Amino acid sequence: MAERTGLLLGTGCLAALAGPVLGIGVAQLTGTVIGDSWGYCMGVSAGYAAELAGGGPMGHFFEAIAFLLMYLFAFPAGFLAVTLSTQRAPRLGLAVLAGLGLLLGGASFDLALHLVPPDGYYLAARCPHGHPPWWPPMIPLPDHGPPNGFENRG
Questions:
Q1: Per the UniProt record, which residue ranges are transmembrane (predicted)?
Q2: Within 13 A of 54's CA, how many CA atoms are on the CB side?
Q3: Which residue of 79, 101, 135, 142 is surrounded by the most CB atoms within 10 Å?
Q4: Inter-axis angle of helices 2-42 and 91-114, to 10 degrees?
């Protein structure tokens, strides 16, 4: 029992340290992909695209807090769930895979919600229905409405 407790504490510390670092890295990468997508679809820089569309995906305070918590705790949650529920030796490998799976699943959810510029702020010639042409068609994205005349602004 003492050996199991020591292993649990050691792996728990690993998850607590690695989880937020991985989460922040994946959140940064996801934010960059979203910003670049908005910039491409609007034909402007990523920063200006976020400004035009109302502050970007992190413009809503409670949504930003929810996604921040998801990125910080997804890996440790998956990691610890497997660590606590299995008794076999490959537990560490399974725990790492579960943590990464939960973290990447959350990042995929974030991309699916925010990759398309909101409220019709896109150039239809570049991004039909607001969907970037490089996005795999088998992964659905929401439609954020028809272009709102953004492309006719001088």
A1: 61-82, 94-116
A2: 10
A3: 79
A4: 20
